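W.,

You were right to be curious about this one. When I first looked at the sequence I had no strong expectations either way, so I just let the prediction run and decided to look at it fresh. Below is the sequence, 221 residues in total, followed by the output.
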Amino acid sequence: MGYPQPPPPAAPRHRPLGRLASPLALLALMWLIRVLDSVLPGSFNGLAQHAWNPATLLGIFASPLLHSSWAHLIANTVPFLILGCLVAAQGTARFWYVTLVATVSAGLGAFVLALPGTVTVGASGLVFGYFGYLLASAVSAAGWAQRLLQGGVALLVAAVFGASMLTGLIPRADGISWQAHLCGAAGGVLAAWWIRHRRGPRRQGPADLDWSEHGARGRLG
């Protein structure tokens, strides 16, 4: 005689606010590093990448967490928080994927395109990566409602940060790492394209889904 089997446990539901923990944790780490950099001797910025120095190549993963000053960190905080949370709202795994692609693309871009010995620090490569991802994903979003939502958000961000973000993509001599900005944005677009084509043309719901500087020959991201 058989006995009725209990129903399988329901799959855990991801709470939208819980997804924001990832960008908040990453931002908190940036602030913690800046606090430690202010009270401890020396500087963590020595862990960043140095253009054309292969021994520092792994520093591309540390550079987004490092900032040259409090003003530099504060300038990056607001756009990172807004754009990072918009990406994270589409899913925690997606946030970390876009973050990884933007980190590598921005870091390699600064490593190859900046003058030899240039030290690039700052989260602006990530900021531009998130911006590029949001713009590209809005264009390729399935369904008019999602396109209007993501497109409206992208336009709002462009209206608020557009001038400074566009000038950040242009070569300049004021210590701003346009290389990290431009390549970070390209990485964001690439991440959006890869996600879109890997999943195919099916309809996707939300659940599927630097500012920088140069110092002693350094660049801010």
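Here's what jumped out at me. Residues 47 and 59 are 6 Å apart (CA to CA). And, maybe more interesting for your project: The chain has seven helices and three strands.

Coffee later to discuss?

I.
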